[in-house]
Amino acid sequence: MIQKQDASSSALSPPVAPIIKVERLVKRYKKAETNAVNEISFSVRPGSLFSLLGPNGAGKTTTISILTTTLQPTSGSVMIADYDISRQASAVRKNIGIIFQKPSLDLNLTAEENVRFHATLYGLYPFRPSYKTMPKGYQQRIDELANVLEIREDLFKPVKKFSGGMMRKLEILRSLLHNPRVLFLDEPTTGLDPSSRRSLWEYLSKVRLEQQTTIFLTTHYLEEAEKADDICIINKGNIVAHGTPAQVKAELVEEYVLLDADDRASLLAELRRLDLSVGEQVPFKVSLAHDRLHSVLKAIETPLTLIETHLPSLEDAYMEIIGK
Fold first, then answer.
1. 3 state DSSP class of 230
2. Where is the ABC transporter domain positioned along the sequence (predicted)?
3. pLDDT at 177 over 60
4. Which of 249, 272, 297 is the last residue of a domain?
5. Are 244 and 262 members of one domain?
6. CA distances from 28 to 52, 79, 85, 208, 281 (A)
7. Which CATH number do you get for residue 169?
C-alpha cells in the first residue's frame, strides 16, 4: 500500500490535526461471511480535496454512510471535526454537508422553499411562512451563497424547471447553509452533461476557496479524482492504495517512451550504451521517467523517426490495482 509522507510533519511546521480521522474501521453486515469494510485507516487534512475510489461493491458506500452517521460501524473509530461519529453523531451532523448521488429536492417547491425547510429541519432557524419573514441572518446567508453559485435570479423559481446542473448547485447551496467544515459529495456529477460537470466543478472550487471547506469525494469519473490532494482506493473492503495522484501513478504504472529509427541497429546500440532498459521489439520501448527524457534524446545521435511518450493516468493506475 502506498503511504503518503506528510510534509506537515517537518520540523519547520507543526503537524496539522486531521479534520477526518479513521482508525481500523470495520463493518460486517448480518449473515455476511466477510467484512464490507475491513480495518481501514486514513486521515483527511482540513481544507483539502480527498477522493475515495473503488468499483461497485468495494466498500465506498458503506464507508461514506458510516462517516455521515447514517450507518453504525461494527468496530473501529471515526473522528470528524474532533467529534466521535458514534458517541457524538448530532455534533458531527452539524459540521458536515452531504450531496447524495441522486437529487433529494422537492420538485414542487421553489429553490428557496427547499432551502428554508432544510434550514428549519437542521434547527438553524425557526420556520417562517415566507422568505421575507425569515430572520435577516438567513436572508443574508442565502444571498451570499446564491451569489457565489450564481443562482440568485432562480431562487424563487420551481425546482421542477431546473436543469440537472442547476439542481446540483441548489443542493450545494443547501448543504453549505450551516457552514459545514466537511462537504461529502457522493458521485455529484452522475447524469450531468460535460458542460454542466465542468461548471459544477468550477463552482465547487470557488466554494472551497471562499468557504475553506474540506471536500470528501466519491466518483466514477477518474479525471475528477486527478484534481484531489489525496486519493484512497478501496477494493473488497481493503485500502489498496493511498497517496497523492502522482504517488499512486508513479508507484503502480510505468512511464516509458517508444523510439524508432531507420537505422534500428545503431539506435539499439546507443540505447544500450546509455544503460537503458530496452528490448528488441520495435518500436523500442524504453522505461524512462519523464524528467530524464530530454537528456536522453539529446544524447542520441541516430536520427529518430518516432518519439512517443506514455505518461500514466490515474485511470491506468486504477485499472492496474483493480485488475490485480
1. strand
2. 20-261
3. yes
4. 249
5. no
6. 20, 20, 17, 34, 50
7. 3.40.50.300
Both 237 and 268 in one domain: the answer is no
| Residue 58 belongs to a domain | yes
Q: Are residues 245 and 291 in the same domain?
A: no
Verify that 14 and 147 share a domain, yes or no.
Answer: yes
Q: Report the percentage of the chain scoring pLDDT > 90.
A: 48
Quick one: pLDDT band at residue 5, thresholds 50, 70, 90? very low
Eight-class DSSP state of 229: S
DSSP code of residue 19: S
Task: Quote the CA–CA distance of 87 and 96 in Å, as a whole number.
Answer: 16
The verdict on whether omega for the bond into residue 55 sits within 30 degrees of 0, i.e. cis, is: no
Clarify whether residues 21 and 43 are in a common domain: yes
Q: Which residue has the cell 431562487?
A: 155
pTM of the predicted structure, to 2 decimals:
0.76
More confident site: 115 or 147: 115
The answer to whether residues 185 and 68 touch, using CB atoms and an 8 Å cutoff, is no
Q: Are residues 199 and 313 in the same domain?
A: no
**Domain tally, the chain:** 2
Alpha helices in 161-287 (DSSP H): 164-176, 194-211, 222-225, 245-252, 264-273
pLDDT in tens, 255-284: 788 999 999 999 999 998 888 888 778 899
Are 249 and 217 contacting, i.e. CB atoms less than 8 angstroms apart?
no
Question: Residue 56 above 90 pLDDT?
Answer: no
DSSP for 48-113 reads -EEEEE--TTSSHHHHHHHHTTSS--SEEEEEETTEETTT-HHHHHHTEEEE-SS----TTSBHHH
The pLDDT value given to residue 122? 78
Distance, in Å, from the CA atom of 65 to the CA atom of 107, rounded to the nearest integer, reads 25
The CA distance from 191 to 257, in Å, is 37
Residue 133: its pLDDT value, please? 94
Residue that is last in its domain, among 229, 249, 269: 249
